[in-house]
Design brief:
By secondary structure, the chain is an all-alpha fold. It has helices at residues 17-28, 44-54, 61-66, 85-91, 93-105, 116-125, 130-157, 163-181, 189-192. The relative contact order is 0.11. The chain has one domain.
Length: 197
């Protein structure tokens, strides 16, 4: 009978938190989880929200129905599909209008994304500077956050925001967050609203 030991598979290696975290994530999370990375240009709550949405960890009707908390998993906004993170944040009618406006504002070809994972890959695939990729990524995270907030306002406060109001929130929050959290303090509102960065 052998004794229990505490050792790494390779005894010549030292403890490294990053490697342990990576091993745990590889075992527990879907393969697409690596598309997400924290953005320093948005608050932690936005990073955490998007990460949770990516792994189906937000409280949508579908998730609540799965736990027998609500009887109906249908989207309260459109009533045509189950309210999953991908549906409410990307594919619901109001979300589609918001994304169409965001892509137009950022001068990106309109892209019909089906999943949050696909959306988060877009900035890295564009032929723009690395700073612009970071800005676009932050805008995408902010957009997901604002769409979710509008959804919650509709459900919990009976306030329905139209696409124009949501886009206004996205532009103003993304501007404030990127201007004061990033190294580009020279951003000007006049150029930002036209996305001349």
């Amino acid at each position: 009978m052998g004794f229990d030991t505490n050792s790494w598979a390779d005894p010549s290696t030292t403890f490294n938190t990053k490697e342990i975290r990576q091993e745990i994530e590889d075992l527990c999370l879907p393969a697409d989880h690596r598309v997400f990375h924290d953005s320093k240009l948005v608050p932690s709550k936005v990073n955490i929200f998007v990460w949770r949405a990516l792994i189906n960890g937000i409280q949508t009707k579908e998730a609540l129905h799965h736990r027998n908390i609500v009887p109906n998993p249908m989207c309260p906004s459109c009533g045509t599909n189950n309210e999953s993170p991908d549906h409410v944040l990307l594919n619901c009618e109001r979300a589609l209008k918001v994304w169409h406006a965001v892509f137009k504002w950022c001068n990106i070809p309109i892209n019909q994304t089906v999943t949050i994972c696909q959306l988060l890959k877009i900035p890295a695939s564009l032929p723009v500077t690395s700073d612009t990729k970071k800005l676009l990524y932050a805008i995408f995270l902010t957009s997901l956050w604002c769409i979710w907030r509008a959804r919650n306002d509709q459900i919990f406060n009976a306030k329905t925001k139209d696409t124009t109001a949501i886009i206004g929130d996205i532009k103003s929050l993304a501007y404030l967050w990127t201007k004061y959290r990033g190294s580009s303090n020279n951003l000007k509102w006049r150029t930002w609203v036209k996305f001349v960065v």
